[in-house]
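Memo to structure team: turn this sequence into C-alpha cells by end of day. - J.P.
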Amino acid sequence: MSKTASNFGPMWLGMASPRMSEQVDPLIVERGEGVYVYDKDGNRLLDSQGGLWCVNIGHGRPEMKEAITNQLDKIACYNNFVDTSNNPAIELSKKVISMTQEEDMARVMFCSGGSDANETALKLARQYWKLKGMPERTNFISMQYGYHGVHFGGMSINGNDYYKEPYGPVLPGCYQIPSPFTYRNEISDDPVELAEHCAQKFEEKLLELGPETVAAFIGEPIQGAGGGVVIPPKNFWPRIREICDKYEVLLICDEVITGFGRSGSMFGSRGAGIAPDIMCLAKGISSGYIPLGATVVNQRVASAWEVDGPEGLIMHGFTYMGHPLACAAGLTALSIVEKENLPANAADVGAYFLQQLMPLLDKYEAIGDVRGKGLMIAIELVKDRATKEPLGHDDESPLMVSRAAMQRGLIIRALANSLIMSPPLIFSKENADEAAAIIDQAFAAVYS
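Reply from structure team:
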C-alpha cells in the first residue's frame, strides 16, 4: 500500500477507483462549524458542497448535539418491525406528514438514505398496483441525466450509463425519456417548446409500452448529480402531472436533494407547482447528522393498503428504519429549517450567489454555462463554447479548478464537466462573495 493510500487506511471510497484514490492528496476533515470545515492540519475551508448536498442547517449545531445525546441517554437503537417502534420515529412521522399536508401525504416509511428511499418507492409502486388488481403495471419511466441512487432499482432508472455499465445487466422494465435540459439539447432553444417536446416523449413512451403496464414516472424536480443541476422549464412538471393523471400512472418525485429547502421552496415539487403521489426524502431530513431517509405516500396511494388479508403485508424494511437517534436528529433539524426559514434564505442567497458567478462567463472561455436555483448551482466547462462541445472523459480541468479552490480555502465538487455548489442553507451573501472570489481565483490559476 502506498504512503498516500495509507491516509485512507484499507478503505475504498465511493465514486472513485482505488488507484485514483492513491494518486490524490486526501482531504481529511476533522471538524465543522457553521459553513466551514477544518482539515487535519487546522486549515479552514468554506464548505460550498454542504457535505454532499445535505448539511442544510450547517455544521456543529449545539441543538443537534443536545437532541442526539438526550436520545442516546434513553436508547440508541431499536427496530420498527411488525408491532415495535420508538417515540422519535413516531413523532418524526407526524412532523413529516404535517409538513407535506399541501401534497396530501398520509404515510411514511423510514430508511437510512436516498438510495433506500427510492428503492422503497419503486417497490411500493409495484405493490400498489397489485393491490389495485393490476399486477401487470411493473414498468418505470424516468429521465435522461436522472440520478436515483446506487441500489439495483435506482441504478436501473438512472439516466446515465456510467452508473450502470460496471454492474449490468440492469433490471428490466426501466425506460428513459429526454430531459428538458435547456443548455444541452438538440430539440429547441425555446424552453416552453423543449418542455412540451419532452412531455410528449413521455406520453409516446406510455402509449408504446401500454399505459396498463406502467407503474410510475419518477424524476427529480431539479436534476442534481446526473446532469449537473438541470432545471426544467416551468411548464414541464405540470405537463408530466397531467399526463400521469390522464393514464392513471403514479408520479414519484425524488426529493432526496430538493426536499426541505435547497431549491428555494420547502420541496422541489411544491416549487414546480405539482403534488406527487410518492416523495423520496433524505439528506436534508436530518441535515446529514445521522443517516436518515423516508418514502412518503399520499392518501390515495396509502388507501390501497387498507385491506385485512396477507396481500396488504409490506414485506420490506430495514434494520435501521426509524432509528431513534436519527429520528431525534431529524426532528430537531426540521424544526431549525422551519424556525430559520431556510428555504427562503436559499432562494435569496442562491439568487445572489448565481449573480456573483455570472461575470465568470465573460472572463473564461472554458465556461459554457452558469445555472442554478436556490442553493443548487453549477458551472459547466466546455471544450468549445460556440459549439458547446463537452470536455473529454480524460479532461481533468474541473478537478484542477476544484483543487485550486481548495488550496485557497473553498470546497467545491468537480462532477464530470461541471463544478457544483450546494452549500448549507444558512449560507449568507458574505459567504457567497467569499466563494465567488475564490472560484474566480481558481479559474485564473488554471486558465491563465
